[in-house]
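ok so for the tutorial part 2 we go from a plain amino acid sequence to predicted structure tokens. step 1 is just haveing the sequence, like this:
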Amino acid sequence: MNGAAKGDLAEPLTAIIVFAHGSPVAEANEEVARLAEEVSRRAGCPARAAFLEVAQPNLEAAVSEAARAGARRIVVVPYFLTMGVHVRRDLPRLLAEQQARFPSVDIRAAQSLEGYPGMADALLDRAQEALRTATSKRVTSDQ
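step 2 — the prediction. this is what the tokens look like for a chain of 143 residues:
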């Protein structure tokens, strides 16, 4: 793992919430939930998805569930590419509301994916995949 040692996250009573926008497309939300499961597996602590709008659970429900399960530290990781209005305005407001509800729980936000050093590699990997695979779609003028 880059950044923090796995042991930092695996300390007892830590939970991670992968916080995404939410979509009316169920498969998109399910993919975020699968990502949270993988984060949990790799971190060695509970992790789950939460959504800003459209999908459930919302952040309030996810924080409440983690706190009821005994989490004393909750790290909310925004699954947003940039520091847009949801990360700059909505997330701090939502976190302040949850911190007021659970004052004995340390609730903190991680950075969005903006500026993450591995992002350029991920985009290049996807571009290379598109060039290699027969399943990638070629855009034509009639589309």
